[in-house]
Design brief:
The chain has about 200 residues and is mainly alpha-helical. It has helices at about 5-20, 35-55, 65-80, 85-95, 100-115, 135-155, 165-180, 185-190, and strands at about 30, 35, 125, 130-135.
Length: about 200
């Protein structure tokens, strides 16, 4: 498996290519749930902007030791803040893409790859003020780029196959999140055809 840095960069480039393929007349159309397509792409673009921002936010302690612990933390925060906060951030991020959203995504993609560089595994401070190592955080951003890349493709009928390394990392992380949430048996039985997942089940 590639390093978390290389896999993230691969996912960023793939996302940028996908956005370039989105038909111009689809940006105001349906995206996912309460988001139109622009808001969905805006939300996904936060996997670029948060990395750039957090690289300038060093932490002193490692409060979250893994990508799956990060998602458990985010689920706990979401229970307090409510889903509306996430929805609104996505809408704002979509609006921030401006009149030329494709060009904006290209600029953000290039900027975060350059800013990341070799990706030294430093401690960074993320949402909720928690410290996590960069190499533990980047797989959460690759996960978002892959999952929402598939959402964007489904909403626009644009063919999209995530890079193999990014798809592998995202799929394995989904399983680890399920384990961290205490749902390992349920997910394993579903993946092996023993039973179906509960209606609406999600690891995020």
């Amino acid at each position: 498996m590639e390093s978390p840095v290389a896999t993230y960069v691969s996912a960023v480039r793939s996302f940028s290519e996908l956005v370039r393929a989105v038909p111009e007349n689809r940006w105001d159309g349906p995206g996912l749930g309460e988001w139109d397509l622009r808001s969905l792409i805006g939300h996904t673009s936060r996997s670029l902007t948060t990395v750039a921002t957090y690289l300038d936010s060093p932490a002193d302690t490692e409060d979250l030791a893994s990508a799956e612990q990060y998602y458990v933390h985010v689920k706990e925060l979401s229970a307090v803040l409510g889903a509306g906060d996430i929805v609104e951030r996505g809408r704002r991020a979509g609006a921030d893409l401006g009149d030329h959203p494709v060009a904006s995504i290209d600029v953000l993609s290039t900027a975060v790859i350059e800013r990341l560089g070799a990706g030294e595994d430093r401690l960074i401070r993320v949402i909720g003020g928690m410290g996590i190592r960069l190499h533990s955080y980047l797989p959460t951003r690759t996960f978002e780029l892959v999952v929402h890349g598939l959402d964007i493709a489904a909403a626009t009928d644009v063919p999209f196959t995530p890079p193999a390394d990014a798809l592998e990392e995202a799929t394995l992380l989904a399983a680890r999140i399920a384990l961290a949430l205490g749902d390992g048996k349920t997910v394993l039985r579903a993946l092996t055809g023993r039973t179906a997942l509960p209606s609406g089940y999600s690891v995020v």
